[in-house]
């Protein structure tokens, strides 16, 4: 009998893009499909965890056995994560959260004119940084999608947010498609995982996470 890798653990994840409204019909978003986050949520369920998936807008069905909370903006995602964190052992930030949002969303549809239009953006809160900085923070796993210099940027993000583990991928590998090629970063160094369907990559990430959790004395 093999006990499940995440049995008894509660995992909170974010996935997908966020949508930052400009007016009632327009907004700023990105091309994250949610596939990587949903695959990871499913792998956590399969590993025996209680899973809360806080999801931005995607066209994907909810992972079987996970509790999905639908949100649209980064602020909504932040609030849903904070509400879900109670009792969480692990937080995984897979979402491609918009770094900025329009300072003010127009109440009515912005009308076309021949004049230039300036959109003022304000920074969104960094959800992962906020979770990781909490006094009794869960074990936090970050993601980083970069278009170049993956090692330097990914390890930089891991250290800046003091994360025990971060999953790095190149934008051209990870964004949108069914496959991904990732490198796991932790205190012991870098651990490349070969290109595979996101479902298989997710399984490998869960195995590494479970090992680090055990080593960290987190049971
Ligand atoms: O959805 P798919 O199409 O399957 O694509 C998957 C993916 C490429 C989106 C995914 O694998 C990935 O890399 N996600 C992270 C995207 C990213 O570049 O994040 P970031 O570098 O902006 O942020 C770093 C980390 O902080 C991430 O864990 C992110 O979720 C988190 N973050 C960032 C900004 C913010 N305001 N709040 C956050 O929590």
TrEMBL record:
Write the record's keywords in alphabetical order, separated by commas: Decarboxylase, Flavoprotein, FMN, Ligase, Lyase, Magnesium, Metal-binding, Multifunctional enzyme
Q: Does the keyword Membrane apply?
A: no
Keyword Secreted appears in the UniProt entry? no
Q: Family, per the entry?
A: In the N-terminal section; belongs to the HFCD (homo-oligomeric flavin containing Cys decarboxylase) superfamily.
The identity of this protein, by name, is Coenzyme A biosynthesis bifunctional protein CoaBC
**GO MF, one annotated term:** phosphopantothenate--cysteine ligase activity
Please name the pathway: Cofactor biosynthesis; coenzyme A biosynthesis; CoA from (R)-pantothenate: step 3/5; Cofactor biosynthesis; coenzyme A biosynthesis; CoA from (R)-pantothenate: step 2/5
The parts of the chain that form a coiled coil are none
Q: Which residues of the whole protein does the chain here span? A: 181 to 399 of 404
Positions binding CTP in this chain are 99, 109, 125-128, 143, 157, 161
Q: In the Enzyme Commission scheme, what number(s) does this protein have? A: 4.1.1.36, 6.3.2.5
- Function text: Catalyzes two steps in the biosynthesis of coenzyme A. In the first step cysteine is conjugated to 4'-phosphopantothenate to form 4-phosphopantothenoylcysteine, in the latter compound is decarboxylated to form 4'-phosphopantotheine. Catalyzes two sequential steps in the biosynthesis of coenzyme A. In the first step cysteine is conjugated to 4'-phosphopantothenate to form 4-phosphopantothenoylcysteine. In the second step the latter compound is decarboxylated to form 4'-phosphopantotheine.
Report the cofactor remark: Binds 1 FMN per subunit.
- Give cofactor(s), names only: FMN; Mg(2+)
The organism named in the record is: Aromatoleum diolicum
Ranges for the region named Phosphopantothenate--cysteine ligase are 11-219
Its recorded reaction(s) are: (R)-4'-phosphopantothenate + L-cysteine + CTP = N-[(R)-4-phosphopantothenoyl]-L-cysteine + CMP + diphosphate + H(+); N-[(R)-4-phosphopantothenoyl]-L-cysteine + H(+) = (R)-4'-phosphopantetheine + CO2
Could you tell me which residue ranges the DNA/pantothenate metabolism flavoprotein C-terminal domain spans?
A: 6-211
